[in-house]
Specification:
heterodimer, A: alpha/beta, Rossmann fold, 7-stranded mixed β-sheet, 4-stranded antiparallel β-sheet, 9 helices, about 30% helix, globular, B: mainly alpha, ABC transporter involved in vitamin B12 uptake, BtuC, 17 helices
Chain lengths: ~260, ~425
């Protein structure tokens, strides 16, 4: 990470306000190939807002996004997908009334040479990719509203990895899962990482983060408190970044870091 | 038995509706002393249902995407007036009176106008974010006023002879031979679809339906098609039309007269064509997939990269187009364009759609169900006319049936959430 590599994603000085509230304030964050970058902070710290800007769900007020050094225009979710960015939303963002295959291919349907939907081909691919994530998944004909939380999560994850994403955004990907399924997601993240995919991981679980992430970025009140390699900080230091906004020596401080009491004294 | 029915993968709700429709028909037949299930009544029923059925197919898309269109009746009236003036005034000046191209040029102009006005409402709804209820309520008033304005309220009649064929009547039906051709082609299409579906399942090693179930489904679909053709062919031309036809073709009429069958009426063919096309759009195309996905979760569809606003515009454009088709059928049947044509049709269309199983909450509904709903509503009305029920009481019954039907459907859904 020390070499002057071109980052896969570089978001610089991103700001977005809702009315008078600065949801994200001059946030900068970088992601490299084959890296898991954890984004942590309290509810309302601006993590979800920041990654929604990257995935095109929200539009930034100011700041730049570049992908492999090239300035990227991301004005809507279609643009983000074109850039190879796939997102697993906390809400899963599934259309409940249609089946798993229809959700997997939503917006990118496979079509026959007549231009009609190729449902059989889509179902076959869906069975393949979901089967790898969750071998017990059988309900391909049912609308996803009939599925359990874990099964729905499988559908959302399968959708994100189906199209050879370069950049994966995971917003609380294990929130609805039991311990066994959570372990499966962890396994998947390691596999994707090995394939060179860059992953933004939003999580509340500090243990998960230390397990899976290479670097960590802490946000508070819309600002970046600091960014650090996991190896350079302890869990307690990260907790005090989250709660107090104080930046430990192992981390690079951001605009949201408070001045240390020792400096004042 | 339930296992077998399940293996056919037939839509239980749709079957329930067919059952309800048959029950209503048999009840009216018994109460009216054998007047309801006659070729003549059923043929008229089919013609009377077609205008609402055509529009109901479009209303499915509109309601599935969580919108509503209150303007369809007025739009029908306005486009109908424009088509009336086009074929009786504008085109005769250009092409001459009763020119063979008049009807098609008029229809094309009407369809274009309907699609443009529908799209205009759609743009206001989708891109300006004004609720569909308000925009189309405005449309209801605007287009009805515009319909009056076309001729300052004067009725336009009579219409072009060829255009009138779209409305039905003895000449506006395709006759016995062609009706059988249509019926047999339809049955072959059913068979082809079943074979194709089976081949697709085999291609990907999906579980197949048992052969018995396939044949049962095929028979279940083909039997009513052929029965409908037989009924349409059992309804003879009225004696006046037969006499005129005999005179024109120099055929001597014996004492027994001449049996000329109506066959399937043109408006019914149009409605069936629209129904097939709309079902294809709903189930086999991207656009249809997006319509249902937006209805299920608009935010998810947007995040999945669907251009949801443009899809909404297209649903309203389609609705406008279908209102124009229904307008053409209505004025052709009446042989006149009046500024009040289609008054309150929006409510019949919405009622037919909802009775047909489309949920106002969005995401759920079928084209076939909506068309069945239109036939069911018309059956109630025709049946009560046959029984001599007063108009106010007819309205009371239709209103009550609407609420009860939706109530039963809601209860059914609650019991089986999937």
């Amino acid at each position: 990470m020390n070499a002057p590599r071109i980052p896969l994603v570089a978001m610089r000085d991103i700001s977005l306000s809702f009315g008078g509230l600065h949801a994200v304030d001059r946030a900068s964050i970088e992601l490299y190939d084959g890296e898991v970058m954890a984004l942590v902070g309290h509810n309302g710290a601006g993590k979800s807002t920041l990654i929604k800007i990257l995935s095109g769900a929200l539009r930034r007020d100011s700041g730049t996004i570049s992908i492999r050094g090239q300035a990227a225009t991301i004005a809507n979710p279609r643009d983000a997908r074109t850039c190879g960015i796939e997102t697993i939303y906390q809400t899963l963002a599934l259309a409940d009334n249609v089946d798993a295959a229809a959700n997997l291919f939503l917006g990118r349907e496979l079509r026959t040479r007549w231009g009609t939907l190729d449902d059989a081909a889509m179902e076959a691919q869906a069975r393949d990719v979901i089967g790898r994530l969750n071998p017990h998944f059988q309900r391909f004909k049912d609308p996803v509203s009939a599925l359990s939380g874990g099964q729905r999560q499988s559908v959302a994850i399968a959708r994100a990895i189906l199209f050879d994403a370069r950049i994966l955004v995971m917003d609380e990907p294990t929130a609805a899962l039991g311990p066994q399924e959570t372990a499966q997601v962890g396994e998947l993240i390691r596999k994707l990482k090995a394939d060179g995919i860059g992953i933004f991981l939003i999580s509340h679980d500090i243990h998960d983060v230390f397990d899976l992430a290479d670097r960590i970025c802490v946000m508070k009140n819309g600002r970046v408190v600091g960014t650090a390699r996991i190896a350079d900080v302890t869990k307690d230091e990260v907790l005090s970044m989250i709660i107090l906004g104080s930046c430990p020596p192992g981390a690079t401080p951001g605009p949201g870091a408070v001045k240390k009491p020792s400096l004042r004294a | 038995m339930t296992g077998f029915l399940k293996s056919t993968e037939l839509d239980a709700r749709l079957l329930g509706m067919v059952g309800a429709l048959l029950a209503i028909w048999i009840a009216f037949h018994a109460l009216s002393g054998g007047l309801f299930l006659t070729p003549r009544n059923l043929w008229n029923l089919s013609v009377q249902s077609s205008s609402v059925a055509i529009m109901a197919t479009g209303m499915v898309f509109v309601i599935v995407t969580r919108n509503i269109d209150l303007s369809v009746g007025s739009l029908l009236g306005f486009v109908g007036m424009v088509m009336g003036v086009t074929q009786t005034d504008l085109l005769p000046k250009l092409l001459g009176f009763e020119h063979p191209a008049t009807w098609i040029a008029t229809l094309a102009a009407g369809l274009l106008l309907g699609a443009v006005l529908g799209a205009l409402q759609g743009v206001v709804i989708a891109y300006l974010g004004i609720s569909a209820f308000i925009v189309t309520l405005g449309g209801l008033l605007v287009w009805r006023g515009a319909a009056w304005w076309v001729t300052s309220g004067q009725t336009v009649a009579p219409l072009d002879d060829r255009f009138r064929l779209m409305g039905g009547g003895p000449e506006g039906a395709i006759g016995a031979t062609w009706s059988w051709v249509v019926g047999i082609v339809a049955c072959l299409a059913v068979a082809a679809l079943l074979v194709h579906g089976r081949a697709q399942r085999k291609r990907f090693n999906f579980p197949l339906r048992p052969m018995g179930a396939e044949i049962f489904v095929g028979a279940l679909l083909c039997a009513p098609i052929l029965a409908a053709v037989a009924v349409a062919n059992a309804y003879p031309w009225p004696i006046g039309s037969v006499r005129r036809y005999a005179e024109a073709n120099h055929i001597a009429l014996g004492d027994s007269g001449l049996f000329i069958a109506h066959g399937i009426a043109a408006p019914v063919l149009i409605a069936i064509g629209v129904g097939v096309a709309m079902t294809f759009l709903a189930t086999r195309t991207r656009f249809g997939r997006y319509v249902y996905a937006i209805g299920g979760n608009p935010e998810a569809a947007e995040l999945a990269g669907v251009n949801t606003r443009w899809v909404i515009v297209k649903t309203f454009m389609l609705m406008g187009l279908l209102a124009a088709v229904a307008g053409a059928v209505s004025i052709a049947r009446l042989n006149a364009a009046t500024n009040s044509e289609g008054t309150l049709a929006e409510l019949l269309v919405i009622a037919a759609t909802v009775i047909g199983g489309t949920s106002l909450a969005g995401g759920v509904g079928t084209v076939a169900g909506a068309m069945l709903g239109a036939v069911l509503m018309q059956s109630l009305q025709s049946g009560m006319v046959l029984l001599g029920v007063d108009t106010p009481l007819q309205n009371i019954v239709v209103g009550a049936v609407l609420v009860i039907a939706v109530g039963i459907d809601t209860a059914y859904r609650r019991r089986r959430p999937a």
